[in-house]
Design brief:
Helices cover about 80% and strands about 0% of the residues. It has helices spanning about 1-30, 40-70, 80-95, 100-110, 115-120. The model has no long low-confidence stretch (mean pLDDT about 75).
Length: about 120
């Protein structure tokens, strides 16, 4: 029972860090003007940098919070897969919380040449 409480505390720490960091990352890449007025290369660069920052945050979260916490509570080998499952859940949630990234990706996918030929 005490072991389960420790795992719940780890999940709570991860989600708390997501609630603090995800809006900050999203706000870093906010564009005041419409995507129509920004060059395609600059938009791709914003998306690429946004994804790099997200990957860096997931890496830091995995190596400094999850790894050391699991080491601290002496996790057994059979629960070692828990950190990878938690990483996957965190990655999906973090990308889902990025409103500006989704908006840019939607804009690019709607203006793709192949898509425009299929719609016509």
């Amino acid at each position: 029972m005490f072991f389960l409480l420790k795992l719940i505390l780890l999940v709570f720490l991860c989600f708390l860090s997501l609630l603090i960091i995800a809006p900050i990352i999203d706000h870093l890449f906010y564009i005041d003007e419409s995507e129509k007025y920004i060059s395609f290369k600059k938009l791709i660069l914003y998306i690429f940098l946004h994804l790099i920052i997200i990957c860096l945050f997931i890496y830091l979260l995995h190596n400094y919070i999850i790894y050391y916490y699991l080491k601290y509570i002496n996790i057994n080998v059979k629960y070692d897969k828990f950190k990878y499952i938690l990483d996957l859940i965190i990655a999906i949630i973090l990308v889902g919380l990025q409103r500006n990234l989704r908006h840019k990706l939607t804009f690019i996918s709607n203006n793709h040449p192949i898509r425009s030929k299929l719609i016509e």
